[in-house]
Structure prediction request, 526 residues.
Amino acid sequence: MGCDTKAPDGYDPRAYPPVAVTVDVVTFTIVDNQLQILLVRRGQRPDKGLWALPGGFVREDEGLEAAALRELHEETGVVAEPRHLEQLGTYGTPDRDPRMRVVTVAYWAILANLPEPKGGGDAAEASLFSVVMVEADALKLAFDHGNIIKEAVERVRSKLEYTTLAAQFCPPEFTVSQLRRVYEAVWNARIDPGNFHRKVTTSPDFLRSTGGSTDPRARGGRPAKIYSPGEAEYISSPIMRSPSPRPTPRRRRPPPEQPKPPR
Amino acid sequence: MGCDTKAPDGYDPRAYPPVAVTVDVVTFTIVDNQLQILLVRRGQRPDKGLWALPGGFVREDEGLEAAALRELHEETGVVAEPRHLEQLGTYGTPDRDPRMRVVTVAYWAILANLPEPKGGGDAAEASLFSVVMVEADALKLAFDHGNIIKEAVERVRSKLEYTTLAAQFCPPEFTVSQLRRVYEAVWNARIDPGNFHRKVTTSPDFLRSTGGSTDPRARGGRPAKIYSPGEAEYISSPIMRSPSPRPTPRRRRPPPEQPKPPR
DNA sequence: TCAAGTTTGTGTTGACAGGACAAGAACCTC
DNA sequence: GAGGTTCTTGTCCTGTCAACACAAACTTGA
Prediction:
């Protein structure tokens, strides 16, 4: 061990190795019907000029979540409180930062429609990027942040299947189609409007009707009922994205080899 | 910030706050048809004498997983490699350790049938405890380890629903009932043998038949086919534990008010 | 005023999955 | 053999869901 102050249970904090602890935040929002994440441009080496997740040191007497919120605000100028903040995982490969050992605790957050991606506050530049662009590796990212983002995207996609978190992307009052467009943006897929409507309106306490309806003057069509989020956190039977592991191709309506007999 | 070496992006590792990073491991195994976890008795203050998760410092040039494995082996004397090791989460409430700021990265692991809970190696005592006992708060635990264990138990329970991890609790070759008893132990519930059998044998590449059968001399009954784990990591349609959110009580067989008409 | 278009919401239908339960299959002991 | 135990398959029935049709409610334009 080479550390003679070490107690028999290997746990004496007064002689701890030099490891820095930081937090990083993957912030999701939906703009223009696309899932976007908030990045800042690094102002110093290493990886100067590359885009990175907002983040920084955890202070000595600061909780991890508090540090994540503080860095999100400080580095991006975002003033709105996230509608959701959740730990994603901790990344501590010894050489992930070339300067020294840095262990980072990653969080992911949902921000309701961020009107304008405000320029960063701390002399840094902040901007929104669509997830499909990031997934296409169209952006050079600092450190292992590409990997962290990849895992965060997978997390938010799967969480929408079995939780009611999608409503957190919406304003406090919204319609079923607005909610559907959240799912379509996050999953990057098209969803049948009728089945989706039935699913979310019958899921217990997912949505609460406010009694109101939209003014259709804007876009034509039947006015939609307005809902606010219910108390339920989980969806009893998940909404499945992409029936990809479709057991059988399940060809609907096999070509009628014989004229349909009247029944 | 009060830290003039801080760069504009708030990220200069040469001036990091004094925070120690440790790992803790929640190790699950099944003994005597019960889900058990491995704990060590603390040999020094604080919480001296209390039971705790095996864990300790992350060394400067050591990965987090490597540190978890090392501490598991060092503190418990376990020689077998875990069949699964996965990050659970990171716990960093500022006052969770009274001596200084300690951020711990928790892992959970699966160990196939540990024959004997070997006494600890590092002058510490190691032992297995059934999860139901720990859940009943029958044990005083150090720090916030009770909370960590609670979250680990929930994690392993839910992972068994949609992954094939249950097989990792079994020896390399096993029968369907052995696998069922894993589910029953982890979920602390009874499962219908027939439906379970159909479910796991038809789930694509969950199990692979070795061709062999058990020798029934031991316990009587029809010999069981022997399987080894397949390549699949996920179960296409999850096995649900406790149909608790049962939509309707679904009274089977409503009392026949009228004699059953032949159809 | 009416047709056409658009969006919202509901009905219908057929396939499928899964729980309750029964029963067959393959072995043991007595 | 009889009876017991365990493994494995079959049956029935119900709930869920995707596909798709269609009704409802509104706008716009002829």
Notes: Residues 192, 194-195, 198-199, 216-217, 219-223, 237, 240, 243, 250, 252-253 of chain A lie near DNA strand D (CB under 10 Å from a C1'). The domain at 18-145 of chain A is CATH 3.90.79.10 (Nucleoside Triphosphate Pyrophosphohydrolase).
